[in-house]
Amino acid sequence: MNTLRTIALALLLLVLPAALCAEAPEPELILPGDPIAWTSPEDGLDMARLSYTRDRGDEFSRRLVIRVLRFDTAHFDFHLFSSRWEGKSVPTMREWADSKDLAAAINASMYLKDGQTSTGYMRSGERTNNSRIVSRYGAFFVAGPRDDSLPRAAVLDRSVDDWKNLLPRYDIVVQNFRLMGPDGKQIWPENGPEHAIAAIAEDMNGRILFLHCADPASVHDFVEALNAHKDLNLNSAMYVEGGSEASLLLRLPGTFHLWNGMSPASYMFSSRGDAIPLPNILGAVRRTQK
Question: How far is Cα 285 from Cα 290, in angstroms, rounded to an integer?
């Protein structure tokens, strides 16, 4: 009997923390063509959950769900964190958020085999993670302007914006693939590899969006899904990570969500869950209201 009680107690201790940290309910699922019913958990932050069905016949039809966090830069700033600058082991997304008091976080960029170096240009102030601007990467996320005439954050399209002039005028710069051309133009092949996707976008009103699709999808289909929801009103967008490492976190008083990518092979969440080490992340931080 004592052995049974011990096992029961051990199981309870395993389950109890998960129950205490249960995620809050998510916004309703929005279909293409329907107005986006934004949920606003606090000033300057909106949430939505968007649906899109890739229709290629019954066998290959699949519904994608894209989670969106939208930030008003009057209420939120964006900080870049890299384990290369921290001088310690690579934290998980949850560890980054807890140690830096982040309201939300997303991958900053893909990284090389050394586990720390961004695949594209990455800088925060005078600290550089990767000094090389990659010719085939067509987008930059910038934040922390060095003069008040500039937006607090933006996603620059290399084919349109004067990026050579703008990059030195920001403290934070991250480079990666652009997701779409001007006016949402599709630039990705239809039959590309499928994996979870994390992305950052800017809308026509200058708000910054963190985007996450846990379902395996080609970048082509991800862009099609975004274009199907016209209410997003996107100006530009940048891919930041794919696969099980693609992560999005929301951390508010009384609310916690952490989304990771699914594996296309098994269509299951990564068994590593929130234990995935992520060397470079972008965090949203509430601005101090004066």
Answer: 15
Structure tokens at 159: 């084919």
Tell me whether residue 247 is in a domain: yes
pLDDT tens across 164-197, in order?
999 999 999 999 999 999 999 999 999 899 999 9
N-to-C CA span, the chain = 62
Q: What is residue 60's predicted lDDT score, i.e. its pLDDT?
A: 59
Total number of domains constituting the chain: 1
Instruction: Say how far apart CA 109 and CA 177 lie, in whole Å.
Output: 10
- 86 lies in some domain: yes
Is residue 13 a part of any domain in this protein? Answer: no
- Assess if residue 238 is contained within a domain: yes
Q: What is the DSSP letter of 243?
A: G
Query: Can you give the residue range of the structural domain that contains 107?
Result: 27-286
Q: CB neighbours (10 Å) of residue 56?
A: 12
